[in-house]
Amino acid sequence: MSDNYDVIIIGGGPGGYVAAIRCAQLGLNTACIEKRINKQDEPALGGTCLNVGCIPSKALLDSSWKYHETESALADHGIKIKGADLDLETMLKRKDTIVKNLTGGIAQLFKANKVTWLQGTGQLKSGKQVEFQPLDGDTQTLQAEHVILAAGSVPVDIPVASVDQKVIVDSTGALDFDKVPKRLGVIGAGVIGLELGSVWGRLGSEVVVLEAVDDFLPAVDKQIAKDAQKQFTKQGLDIRLGARVTGSEVKKDQVVVSFTDKDGEQEETFDRLIVAVGRRPYTEGLLSQDAGVSLDERNYIYVDSQCRTDVPGVYAIGDLVRGPALAHKAIEEGVMVAEVIMGESTQVNYDAVPGVIYTHPEVAWVGKTEEEVKDSGDAYKTGAVPFAANGRAMAAGETGGMVKFVADEKTDRILGMHVVGPQASELIQQGVIAMEFGATVEDLQLMVFGHPSLSETVHEAALATDFKAIHVAQRRRKK
Question: With 70 as the cut, is the pLDDT of residue 478 above it?
Fold first, then answer.
């Protein structure tokens, strides 16, 4: 093994492995350090996202939705099934197979691109030296021209609900329950809490979600969040806002959770409890005291708009730095840094990074909410159209939700797009593309959308922004 590299990446998650591949494609001698050992007790690339995050949770979300449809929704289509059985073991094995295939695929891409995979941990020291501790073997000191820090994040722990991965679990433990809990508690009504709560709710759990803040999805456009909360509640999720957990006690195979709400002190007993109150940057052991890299007050690594740290030649990306903890943000930052190293002109557009909650219906957004634009004092306009007015949505039995645009009143420029409804994660990309190219609402109004399609709701929402919608009733603009 070489001791000198053009680039060393610490972390093999979505940002790290993509950065490694792109650096290698650009002709740089590249090494990627990753310490993860998977469920099969084997080294694995892909980080949290592929191993215990994005991918396995989506596999369970899709499987659980198919089970729900079989149990409850197919009859509306004239398909009657009696006695559908849940084989949880097979469902979990399918999830694990998908994970193994994808992580194994990254290893093959490393080989194809001649990326050196160093299995173990790495610590940045002064002078762009990296102390590498192999999973097996003695510590080695490596030298690099450039170092990319991509160690990712870990779940936030809270003292009032200490995770034991048996009765009280984090997002990782929630992917592998050996049976469907009769009563499931979830602390946190954010993306992770809602997705995991949805999985087990569809499979038969009575789910109670405890959220400390009074607003549901406060970062999401209020009109969209209100609609989403209504639909999730209708599905059976018991979402309790303003419920601050004060303690928990495991008794045999159950947990008693204490919390306060508007009615005072409360208690609930659950078979399992998921703690999903957010994630924090994983910087433990990543930096030596003389590394020279600065952290902010929240322990994020300080970087500029192109992910440079205070140390020339050292970069940090993904969940270690400012901005939302999203795999796709980390991926694009990894590509950007690789190209910056090679002197190319490139920049991530942080104003057009989409967010998605993979519940059913999905919730997705890009750009500014109506509340953000209103608070800025700028003149704006909005248009929203429900999927109930869309023929394709009606044919599919997916009429819940809406598409909404927020645009500048003077320039007509699209400032934000927000969706709650079927395939929101796919539809939002139309807003991302529009904003990336600086499109106006009129640009979308003049486009031809295929009929019948869910995308027609995007067209109608753009038309509704100027009171031109055809398939929903609108008041006429006053002259």
Answer: no
